[in-house]
Every structure is written in structure tokens, then in C-alpha cells.
Amino acid sequence: MLELQRIRENKDYVIERLAVKNFDAAPLVEKIVELDQDRRAKQKELDDLLAQSNQLAKEIGQYFKSGEKEKAEATKKETVVLKEKSKSLSEELDRIVAELDAALIELPNLPHASVASGKGEDDNEIVFSEGEIPTLGADAIPHWELAEKYQIIDFNLGSKVTGAGFPFYRGKGARLQRALINFFLDEALQAGYLEYQPPLLINEASGYGTGQIPDKEGQMYYVGVDKLYLIPTAEVPITNIYRNVMLKEEDFPIKNVAYSNCFRREAGSYGKDVRGLNRLHQFDKVEIVQIQHPDKSYDTLEEMKAHVAGLLRKLELPFRILRLCGGDISFTSALTFDFEVYSAAQKRWLEVSSVSNFESYQSNRMKLRYKDKDSKTHLAHTLNGSALALPRVVAALLENNQTEKGILIPKALQSYTGFEYID
RNA sequence: GGAGAGAUGGCAGAGUGGUCGAAUGCGGCGGUCUUGAAAACCGUUGAUCUUCACGGAUCCGGGGGUUCGAAUCCCUCUCUCUCCGCCA
Fold first, then answer.
1. Which end of chain A has fewer CB atoms < 10 Å from its terminal CB, N or C?
2. Would residue A116 count as lying in a domain?
3. Does pLDDT of A268 surpass 80?
């Protein structure tokens, strides 16, 4: 959520920037500014009343001590009026604050200056691309057929046991998964990240902290009896480690990495987009999260981009980087780069990573702050990125590397898989 | 799942109805001393909202209540610990 002070002081700028996200912020901003003024006025009024009550209470205490019972009783009567007034005033104040909070939550994060306006994914800007797009023989087949041919992923079995979008990985398929996870984790460790194994279920407060709740809780699986959500990404537990935390300036940068299963309901998805590994309800992902000083968060974003690019390079996958336009960038993000790999048999680009700077948007929700050298309190910046999400990487590896001898495992991965070919 | 105990400032730990935002110790910061450091001694040291400022308000796990007045009493939730049960 945006800082109130920022909205108050840069009303027009906020409205202007949010237009880039195709969000008409004007009515909401006006409402927020009004509610804020109202809140402060009411707060002052209430504070004055409470100050009077406190004063009287002190006096009553004195009277009792000195044995002046009548005076005490008389003063008590005075407080009754004050109490009624302050009670109704504080109820009114609660209403205003609730309304203000609700309005603030509806306001998306401001897009970074480099974010262009645009309608949707077609308007994203390709800022980088690398690698040759492989040309496959006429007998090349998509990964779901390869999965069946080599019996490494069983989608039907998943449907039987759970439902669509929950595949079984089997034999060398399962070992490939394990190899990729270890490879990604090791690479992150080498880059200075601290490894975590997070809980896969989170409470409501955590969902709120990173922005899944309210609004997007429909995308998460919910365990009603225990009021817990299955995580859609390790970002949620890992970032929420720092909910209500006061850091010191020298703690920056905090670099965490976590492998986790991710669970997404993906309500409303259908068609060829969800074929095979393209979109699953449960998948594996290694996520990197950084907490950084506001002055350095964009350098950090570049560092994270470079890390992700390095992974794809080592896997020898052709990839491109997109800067998301206003219409495609998420509600909570200020700047997002998507990484896409080319899946040669499907002849399409698949998103395998999304690297974002949330600036102070999540921090403000979570009260993630730090003290500077003058022990002034500020909000930290949060960033995260997939490094990487497995299924589409696997899809591209299978399709691009299909040969007559089988699926060729990239060199960098062979020490992890223990085999050279899936055959 | 059952029974009991507890949650106080960065940490440890006092406080069971009124000058308690909270003793004391440790840690942190500043100073005296010292060539420098340590030790010792002196001082200082929470957050949020509001105000130009003085000041005011709120916060002792979360929420609610009793009272003129709550860290302190009551209800409720969460979490931690101990014992029993179950169990990878």
C-alpha cells in the first residue's frame, strides 16, 4: 500500500502514474485525502477529550488519597459526560479509519518511470534476447507427447489421483526435477543467498502482507478448518519473515532463497495455454527474495535479473527479457521483468521467471522498516524473482533437446541428474 | 486431543487498581579517566499518531469488557512452556 504522506503530498503525480496502469485513481485519491483530513480532525478532538478525562482521573485519585470523598464523587460525575462523548467519537473515528484503510488497499503500487502504458501482454517491451531459436525436424513433438513417450511425466495418473494440473513425475522425470531444484539452489547459494525451507501453508495476515489478500485469495487453495492458505509462491512465507520487523541499515541486503511447491487454483484458465506443463495447479519453484535499502533496490533488481539470465544461459535455453507494460504489471509491483524461454515444438515463448521491485508497497503493508544512522525509521524495499519455476523450463528442455538418442540434458545439469540422456 | 503455567522495552527481569511508559541488570550511545583500549564512574537510551512548536493521545501478545482510573480485575483469541494421549 502506498504511503499516506506520499498521496497527500503528490496527489496529481499519483493519479498520473496510475493512469499508466490503466487505473483511474482520481476518485479514490480524493476520497483518501478527505478521509485523512477528517481522521486527523476527529483524532485531535478525541485526544483533547481523553486528555481532560485523564486529568480528572488523576484529580480523583488525589482526592481519595487526601480523604476528600465529596470532591471525588463530584468529579466523578464530570467524567461521565466526557466518557459518553469520547465513546461516540472514537466509534466514529474507527469507522473513518476502516474506510480509509479500505480505500488505501484499493490503490495499486505506482509504476516505475520506465514503465510504459499499454493494454496487456502484447505491449510489453522486449529489452533483451539471447540464444538461437532451434529448428527441429519434422518429426519433433511437444513435451506432453515426449513425457508420454519416455514415461517421465504422467498427467492422467495425476487426474485420477487428484485432478487436472497435478501431474506425477516418474523415473528420470522425477530425477530431472530434483536435479533442477538442486542446481537452482546451489547457484543461488553461490550468489550469496541464504537458503530457507518455508511452510507451505500461511495464515491470513501473511497473505495480506504480500498482497494476495484481499482480492486475489480466490487464486489460493484454502484449508477452511484451519483457516490457512496453500502458498502460491515461496515469496509469501519468505517475505513475511520480515513482517513487523525493524532492521538496521547494516542488515542490507538481505538475500534469501527458497525452494517450494506452489499451489494455484488458476480459476478460469483453459485451452492450449494449460496443455501439459504450461500451467499447473501444483508446481515447483525456487524463489529469490531480497530486502534492500531504498537507494539500492534498482541496482539489486539488475543483479537479480543477471542471476536469472545466468541460469538460463547455463541451461542453454534461448530466452528473452520483457519489461512489463502498465497493463500487464501486477497490482503490487513498481517494475517487473519477465523471462521467457522458447519452447521449440510448441513454437511459443513460455514465461519462466518474473523479477519485480515492489519498492515500499509490501513493506508498508507489512511494517517492514529499518533505522538509519540517525535512528530515523524508514520503510525498506522488497524484491523477488523466480529462479526458476520448473515446469516450463522442463517443457522447453524436453522439446528443444529432443534427439534420436533421447532428450539431451544440458552439460551444467548432468552432474545433478547423473545421466546424459532421457531415453 | 486432555490438564496446567505463562506472554512486560534490543535482551533478561520486577511490577497484582491511581504520579507506571513502566524498577533493576545487560546491551547500545555520549562523556570523564587513558598514548590507545579495557575496567571504573557519570549521563543517556522504545514505538506510533498529532502539532510550526510547547504539548497532547495511544501502545505492557491480539481483540473486547469492568472502573472516574487497568500492565495489574473479567471474557475471548493467538502463541510459548510442562505433563498425559496419539503419531511421521
1. C
2. no
3. no
pLDDT tens by residue, A380-404: 999 999 999 999 999 999 999 999 9
Q: Do residues A22 and A129 both lie within one domain?
A: no
DSSP A334: S
CATH code, domain carrying A414 = 3.30.930.10
d(CA A46, CA A86): 6
pLDDT above 90 for A150: yes
Q: Is residue A377 part of a domain?
A: yes
> How many separate domains does chain A show?
2
Structural domain boundaries, residue A83: 4-105
In a domain, A111, yes or no: no
Choose between A362 and A64: higher pLDDT. A362
- The whole-number Å distance from A95's CA to B66's C1' is 24
- A44 C-beta less than 7 Å away from strand B: yes
Nucleotide nearest A50, from its CA to each C1': B57
Say yes or no: A30 and A152 in one domain: no
Residues A75, A214, single domain; the answer is no
Q: pLDDT by residue (tens digit) across A175-207?
A: 999 999 999 999 999 999 999 999 999 988 888
Q: Is the pLDDT of residue A224 over 90?
A: no
User: Is the same domain home to A96 and A189?
Assistant: no
Q: How far apart are CA A205 and CA A240, in angstroms?
A: 9
Report the complex ipTM. Answer: 0.84
Alpha carbon dihedral A243, A245, A248, A253, in 10-degree steps, equals -20
A51 touches strand B (CB under 7 A): yes
Residue A141: its pLDDT value, please?
Answer: 93
CA dist A147 and A395 (Å) reads: 9
Rounded to the nearest 5 degrees, what angle is found at the Cα of A172, between the Cα atoms of A171 and A173? 90
CATH label of the domain that carries residue A35: 1.10.287.40
Q: Which of residues 80-119 of A touch strand B (CB under 7 A)?
A: 80, 83
pLDDT tens profile A295-347: 999 999 999 999 999 999 999 999 999 999 999 999 999 999 999 999 999 99
Looking at every residue in chain A, the average pLDDT score rounds to 91
Nearest to A280 by CA among A104, A147, A106: A147
Alpha-carbon distance A106 to A379, whole Å? 20
Nucleotides of B under 7 A from a protein CB: 10, 18-19, 47-51, 55-58, 68-69
